[in-house]
Amino acid sequence: MTEAILLVGGQGTRLRPLTINTPKPMLPVAGVPFTVHQITRARDAGVTRIVLGTSYKAEVFREFIDASDLGIEVVIATESEPLGTGGAIRFAAEHLTGGADDSVLVFNGDVLSGLDIRGLVDHHERTRSDVTIYLTPVEDPRAFGLVPTDQHGRVTAFLEKPTTPEEIVTNNINAGCYVFRRSVIDRIPAGRVVSVERETFPGLLAEGALVSGVVDAGYWLDLGNPLSFVQGSRDLVLGHAPSPAVPQHGDFLALAGAQIAETANVHGGSVIGRDARVAEGAVVNGSVVFDGASVGAGARVRNSIVGLGAVVGEDVELDGAVIGDGAVIGARNELREGVRVWPGVHMAECSVRFSSDG
Ligand code: GDD
Ligand code: MG
Q1: What would the CATH number be for the domain defined by 251-354?
Q2: Which of 68, 130, 185, 329 has the most beta carbons within 10 angstroms of its beta carbon?
């Protein structure tokens, strides 16, 4: 049996305004809260018990877990103040039942990947490592934790969000999944903020602990910003990213009660949420329309997120935009990349009809 900790306490700042009401891991991705993809992947890898390390909007997780059966025991640990990634691991570990030498999987709560989870645990146990870190190569590693390794796969440094060019020593980054020997977690200080990336890993390396890296160049995505969020949803619907929680793949996914007009064109891995509506002639491409939202006639929605119950008016054009819950975008507005509309905002109609560039 393997136990796991899933870190889901972050504020999801870069996904605001969607995360004002819903914590990032509970945002719907391909029809279910993102966290369900991670929990069911862990379950299928043989994890029988998972502790959710919550903080921000913990009650949203609790309500959902209480009402669900995911085929795995889910325990919720809630920090009274956010303890950072390391502090959260230490706090959540109070709910683990394994012994000092047992392996504990730890997942960041916002990563979608095709990692061979079992293979990572096997590597950890075979090499008798203190910690094993899943690494993935990326083009621009600056927004992540850089993790150089030697020729034996032993981690030589951990450089979180490097700021100087000299620190860019590798393209392999911390992909947000670790295996810890339980006794290593027990040595993380309790009851205070600890960053596993800035304090625990560098500290372990300084004292000569065996920290191993396993590079896997398969599917990997951090759903930290709106564009990657829609990409993750799209990749799950289209079948490019693996998840047991997506039973069938297709060009789009329409949830129960969704109404899509016959002349509308929904494609590119889009999701149309429960009781959401897409009117005549509208085009929805590679986007996520949350439950109860509506897209007006002739609107064109691309790479965008339309929040719960939001209304996108006729002939509106969205490209890379985020519309907060309950917002109303009046007819003919054109909102491009990076635009975020806060929940409940009403945007007046545009009197002029813009000419589309196709
Ligand atoms: N419970 C709890 N408490 N969880 C937390 C806290 C906390 O105080 N702070 C952060 N988390 C959770 C977040 O919800 C997220 O799932 C995970 O810890 C990582 O935090 P992020 O805020 O998403 O960090 P990041 O994306 O900037 O960087 C991390 O992930 C990268 C890969 O996606 C680091 O681990 C990097 O090293 C890594 O490369
Ligand atoms: Mg993140």
Answers
A1: 2.160.10.10
A2: 329
